[in-house]
Backbone:
């Protein structure tokens, strides 16, 4: 699904960082380094990005018209 707008643990806005995170990781950079560069220091925010699985395309296949 889509990443939450705010972190569940601390409430920090994080959704606007998802695109940059995906681009940097696809280039081959370490997720740890990318998260630090984006300013995500708390473990609750970091876990959102590390554990996120994008299922939007999979779910869209089963959408009824």
Residues:
């Amino acid at each position: 699904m889509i990443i939450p707008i705010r972190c569940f643990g601390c409430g920090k806005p994080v959704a606007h960082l998802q695109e940059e995170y995906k681009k940097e990781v696809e280039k081959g950079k370490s997720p740890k380094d990318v998260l630090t560069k984006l300013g995500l220091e708390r473990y609750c925010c970091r876990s959102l990005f590390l554990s996120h699985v994008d299922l939007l395309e999979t779910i869209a296949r089963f959408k009824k018209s």
